[in-house]
Amino acid sequence: MEAAAGSGAQRRPAGGGKKKKMTKKLQRYWEGAPQPDTPADAPSKAKRRRNEKTRPRAGAKGSLQARKVLRASEAAGRISGKRDPFPGAAPLPHHKVKKFQRGQKSQLAGASSQRLRDHLALLEQKVELAVQQAARMELLLPEEPGFLEGDPGEDTCTIAQADIAEAIDIASATKHFELTLNQFGPYRMDYTRPGRHLLLGGRRGHVAALDWQTKSLLCEINVMETVTDVTWLHTENMFAVAQRRWLYVYDNQGVELNCLKRFNGVLRMEFLPYHFLLATASETGFLQYLDISVGKEVATICTRGGRLGVMGQNPANAIVHLGHSNGTVTLWSPNVKEPLVRMLCHQGGVRAVAVDSSGTYMATSGLDRKLRIYDLRAYQPLQSLVLPVGAGHLSFSQRGLLAAACGDVVQVYRDVPVQPPHKPYLSHTLPWAAHGLRFCPFEDVLGVGHGSGFTSLLAPGAGQANFDALENNPFRSRKQRQEWEVKALLEKIPSELITLDPGQLGQVDAITMEQKHQERVERLGFDPQAKPTFQPRRKLKGRSSAGSLLRRKKKVANEEQRTKIQKSLEQQQAAERERKVAPRAKRSALDRFRK
């Protein structure tokens, strides 16, 4: 009796003292439901349980049970034993997801095999997951974009650059500066894609490359010849200078790397970064493409449009836009000798052309003093604005601001494609007439080259607030730049893929494929893709008699004929349904004679 009772309570000491008070064991949520009392015939287990700690040991049965309960609670949307009031992932607004979407989804129904459909579906899942992750991580970006806001009743165009520089922090205020270069102007200028380095080219031969943020000079030379245009190439180590006779390529130390005598009389240049192509427009009316990765001339096109002094590029599809003296703008690709599109934009000559970063809108200015915005999806005008003085230079920022240089006045417009602007967003007067205009990437800075040097203007809201370090990193080191250059060369897009609609590259040209098939049939004398005639397999035990073989051939032929008839009937039924759904036109008396 004493042994049986001792299993459930503390044994009485020899001295006959009082019983120790039992403390109830604490129950944790990971231990699950309470266990029943220990049977009386197991004293060793009860004693061992009293000596154990409250939390079960790793690997013990209680630990396994706790993990099962924890998993069950997580599956039920519970945290610490309570139900989660907001189960699942947080919802994402549609406009944030749409911001990171690229292209259109794949058409799974048009895939030829189930394996291909599964592969495309898996790729679509990965793309959708990447888009959602990018939209969620946008909350962690360090910078936020914004625009200049004036006081109630105050126009932002009346705010001077000195007032903006005084109101912002010191680091941003240093981005507003002016370089006085009176001897060799007027100046053309260009920024690198990361936006860190600046290239200046004076009409009288002065060429300078510098890090404009630290004001450190990379090189400064005088080519002793007229300079018409300058542009950076794929990195800040190389730049091209269009001189009076030929085209020259220099490194960042001012050393001449190459002299391209086939490119003579160049007036304007545009560099296509993803194709490593340098497009040049000459005074003789020729549009030429140079592949700088191999030093080969890709295409030479005679535009038959006279002197080509107006040039721009579409960043979305690498199409070159040229403005002509007859008021037309032509779109060119190195694969076609004729213009892809010819648009009549102005009654007089075209003075400037610019395309926004999305490739949707194009801005043009002409001798008729009009500034027009066109939708490149439909090639239709959206807005038209009459300026007091015609704009000689245009430039779009990364966030859609449009800068126009009207003589010695630089005006910046906001939301031009949405509504016609009644007044500019910013305005600044230069000491001389502007000769070059360009927004700095990833910075709220507008660079202007003019007759007396260069001026860096502050344009709040112009650049993207955050940059992709794998694409364009302003703070990359020498090693990172070398690795990026190798990767960019490996991912170079061939010039044959430059088209108006880049989405067509993923589609099958059925007409061309059918033509190639017909040419192959004519060349071989037979159709290699034709289905061979059915030949019954020979069977044993007298089952391959002449009558049996004939019956099997007829059976297969009848099945093929039945399939063809079913397809024709389905087509007829579909045409009949479309005819019934379509509205009936007014019947004529002669309809009775139609078959």
UniProtKB/TrEMBL annotation:
Location in the cell: Nucleus, Nucleolus
Q: Which residues form a coiled coil?
A: 113-140
Predominant subcellular localization, coarse grouping:
nucleus
Q: Does the keyword Signal apply?
A: no
Q: List residues of the BING4 C-terminal domain.
A: 424-502
Basic residues: which segments have biased composition?
Answer: 17-27, 45-58
Q: Where do the WD repeats start and stop?
A: 343-384
Gene3D superfamilies this protein is in?
A: YVTN repeat-like/Quinoprotein amine dehydrogenase
Q: Which Pfam families match?
A: BING4CT (PF08149), WD40 (PF00400)
The UniProt annotation puts the region (Disordered) at 1-68, 74-93, 527-595
> Any one Gene Ontology biological process term?
maturation of SSU-rRNA from tricistronic rRNA transcript (SSU-rRNA, 5.8S rRNA, LSU-rRNA)
Q: Which keywords does the record carry?
A: Coiled coil, Nucleus, Phosphoprotein, Repeat, WD repeat
User: Per its UniProt entry, which superkingdom is the organism in?
Assistant: Eukaryota
Q: Does the keyword Metal-binding apply?
A: no
| Function (record text) | Scaffold component of the nucleolar structure. Required for localization of DDX21 and NCL to the granular compartment of the nucleolus. Part of the small subunit (SSU) processome, first precursor of the small eukaryotic ribosomal subunit. During the assembly of the SSU processome in the nucleolus, many ribosome biogenesis factors, an RNA chaperone and ribosomal proteins associate with the nascent pre-rRNA and work in concert to generate RNA folding, modifications, rearrangements and cleavage as well as targeted degradation of pre-ribosomal RNA by the RNA exosome.
- Quaternary structure and interacting proteins, as annotated: Part of the small subunit (SSU) processome, composed of more than 70 proteins and the RNA chaperone small nucleolar RNA (snoRNA) U3. Interacts with DDX21, NCL, NOP2 and EBNA1BP2.
User: What protein does this entry describe?
Assistant: WD repeat-containing protein 46
Organism of derivation:
Mauremys mutica
